Amino acid sequence: PVATASEANVVVDKIINYEKNPVSDASFYKTGINCAYFQDNDNITGI
């Protein structure tokens, strides 16, 4: 997330640069990152 138009411009510029100049190192495409987030619903009652 961004807070200002200036920050948004930086993010968009980075995305455009990545799209125009993809990573050429083959090992980059052989690794991955996994992210997850779990938020329990504390509002459930009667259980």
Descriptive account of the structure:
The chain is mostly helical and about 45 residues long. It has one domain. The chain contains 1 helix and no strands. It is flat and about 55 Å long. The protein starts with a helix and ends in a 27-residue tail after the last helix. The mean pLDDT is about 90.
Provide tags for this entry.
1 helix; flat; 47 residues; single chain
The parts where pLDDT drops under 50 for at least 5 residues are none
> What would you call the shape?
flat
Give the helix level as a range of percent. 25-40%
Question: What average pLDDT do the residues reach?
Answer: 88
Overall number of strands? 0
Give the radius of gyration: 19 Å
Number of helices: 1
Amount of beta strand: under 5%
Give the topology string: H per helix, E per strand.
Answer: H
Task: Tell me the distance between the termini.
Answer: 36 Å
Main sheet makeup: none
Helix vs. strand class: mainly alpha
Number of domains: 1
Per-chain topology:
Blueprint: H1 5-20
What is the gist of this entry?
By secondary structure, this protein is mainly alpha-helical. Helices cover 34% and strands 0% of the residues.
